[in-house]
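Reply to dn_fold:

You asked what the input looked like. This is it:
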Amino acid sequence: MTKVDPLLADRLRDVGLDEAAFGDPGDAWRRLHERYGPRVTLIDRYALEAAHRGIHSEQLDAATRTRLQAETLRAQFPDMEFTSGSERTDGTIEVTAYDDSWPPRFAEWRARLAAELGPVAIRIEHVGSTAVPGLAAKPIIDIQISVADPEGEERYVPTLEACGLTLRLREPGHRYFRPPADRPRDVHVHVCEAGSAWERGHLLFRDYLRAHPAARDAYAELKRELAQRYPNDRLAYTDAKSAFIIDALDAARDWAVRTGRNLHRDD
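and this is what came back:
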C-alpha cells in the first residue's frame, strides 16, 4: 500500500482509520464523506483506491476510473438522474485566457432564450467562469435560468430542446442542459428555482470573484493546474475545485453580509 497525502491521512485518522491500513477503500471513502461532506471528493476516492493497490492515482486504468466516478456520484448526489441518450465524449479539457467575446455570446443566447421562454424565465444570468472578466476558463458559456418551479418541465424543456439543447440531468431544484454529442460543447444551461439556494450560490460566487481579483487569479491558477493534471477527466477536474469553491462561498457570504451586497443582474 502506498502512502496518501498528509491531508487525507489526517482525515483518515480523524475517522478512526490507519492511513497505512484503512481496509476497503470504498468503505473508507464513505466514512470520510459522512464526516467531511463535499470536501471529500472523487480525487480522494482515486487516491484511496490507488494506495490500496500500491500504485499512484495516475496509474488507475480507465475502467476503474469510470467505476469510481459512478460510485462517487451516487454518494454525492443520490437524487441525481442522468437522461438516456444524452451522453457525449469530449476531448481534452482546455482552459483559455479570458475572451472578450464571451459576454456578447451570452447576450445572444440570453436574447434568444428570453424571446422563446417568455415569462417562464424569471431571470436569465451569465454564471460560471466566463462571466468573470479576466478569469481564465473553459470556453463554454454557462447560463442560469430561474423559473418558478423546475419540476414543471413541460413549461421549458421542449423550448430548450428546440433551441438545440439536450436535457442531461435532473436533480431536486435543478435541471442541466448541454448541446448534443454531434454539436460543439459551447454552452451549458442550468434551470433552477427562483430565489433558491442554488440560484443565489452561483450568483454570489460569480459576484465575489468579480469583486476580488486575488481570489479570481487564484482560481484561474488552480484551474490551469487541474486541466494539466486531469486533461481527459472532466469529473475529476470539476471535483478537484470543490474545496476552493466551498471556501470562496464562505468568504462571499461574509462579504455579502458585511457590505449589504445585492446580487447583480446581467440585464
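The chain has two domains: 6-78, 102-259.
Hope that clears it up.
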